[in-house]
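[Automated response] Your request has been received and processed.

Submitted sequence:
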Amino acid sequence: MTSEPTPVTETVDAFHRGGFHILQPKGRGHRSGMDAMLLAALVDDDRAIKVADLGAGAGAAGLAVASRLPKAEVVLFERSAEMADYARRSLDLKENAHILGRVTVIEADVTLKAKARNDAGLIDESFNHVILNPPFNDPGDRKTPDALKAEAHAMTEDLFESWLRTAGAIMIPGGQLSLIARPESIAEIIDACGRRFGGIEITAIHPREGENAVRILVTAIKGSRARLSLRAPLIMHDDNRSHKFSPFVDDLNNGRAAYSRR
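Generated structure:
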C-alpha cells in the first residue's frame, strides 16, 4: 500500500531571474508577484539608504530593493506573525546570503501611533524611502474564506490615511514615498498625502494599448510643495495577442532598471 504524497504547503520562488528567492505559502495567503517588483523599481537611489517596506508580507518588494541596490538597508514591517515568519525564513535561504546582513524583519502593526509606533520599531524620521503595497480590495468585494489572504487584501476605511501617517512620521524630510494601488484609490491617496507629501507623481499601468488601467504607481516627497503630475502611462504588453512584457517592463520586473522620478 502506497502512502499519499505530502501536500505542498509552501514554495520557494525566484525573482529577478534568480537574483533572490522568497518562501511563500501555497494555496493560501498573499503570493507576491509583479506588483511587488514594480513597487521595488520605484526606489532609484544609489546612496547608502534606509528603506522601510510597510506590510511587507514575505518580503518580496523589500528584498527586491536590497537585491538591486547593494548599499540599501531594508526593514520589513509585517503585522501577521505567520507572514513575518515567512520573511525571516526567506532571509535564511542560501540563495539570499548576499543580502542577509542588510535586511531586518520586524513584526509590527503599521497603523500604530506616536509612542506605540516608535516602541514597535517604526522610529520617527529614520528612513530615506518608505514603500508600501497596502491591502486594496474594497471591503464590499467578494470575501475569501482564506483568513490570511483576507488580511493581506481587504481595505479598511481609513487605510491610506493611517498607512501614510506612519510613512510620513518615519521618513526623513525630503524622503520618498512609493506605493502601488488600484486606480479607484487615487482620490484617497492624494487626500492622505495632504500636507505630508508633495511632488506627487502618478503613473497608470495599462495591460495593453486601449485597455483600462489596472494599477497606479505613486511617488511623493515628504515636505515638498511641488504640484501633482500625471506621467505617461506604462503599457505592460506591446503585442495585443501576447503575454510577453514590453522590454522596459521586463527590465523593471527583473531588477535591471528602476522607474525614476521625473
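Summary generated for your ticket: The mean pLDDT is 91. The CA atoms of residues 16 and 257 lie 11 Å apart.
If you did not submit this request, please reply to this message.
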